[in-house]
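agent> Task received from the user: take the single chain below, predict its 3D structure, and emit structure tokens. No templates, no multimer pairing.
agent> Plan: (1) validate residues, (2) run structure prediction, (3) serialize to tokens, (4) report one or two observations.
agent> Step 1 OK, no nonstandard residues flagged.
tool_call: predict_structure(input=
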Amino acid sequence: PKPPGAATQAPKPAPPPPEETPQESLIGRIHDNWLEPASAPSQFKCLIRIDYLAGGRIAAVHFVKPCGSYELEESVRRAVWKSQPIPLIEARTAAGTIDIEFTP
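)
tool_result: status=success, residues=104
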């Protein structure tokens, strides 16, 4: 017990969560749009190259490192296409390419 009149310290506020990078935002959007195939392994990794146009529209999706099966790659490809326009600041005004790693 504290003696009467003792000052109490207010708890320190929690630090704000780190801001999400545009690339993390894009990966999150792809995850939100991904319909996992029943045959998908619990662990896999693929590297995707996305070509985009000014305004964030996707021009092409390439697998630099395959996911492991055609069905899995097609499910990821559909999720990428559903995720447009991509949320990259630079995509607002210029075309470009971004490589992202996709894991479940």
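agent> Step 4: summary for the user.
The first strand starts at residue 46 and ends at 52.
agent> Done.
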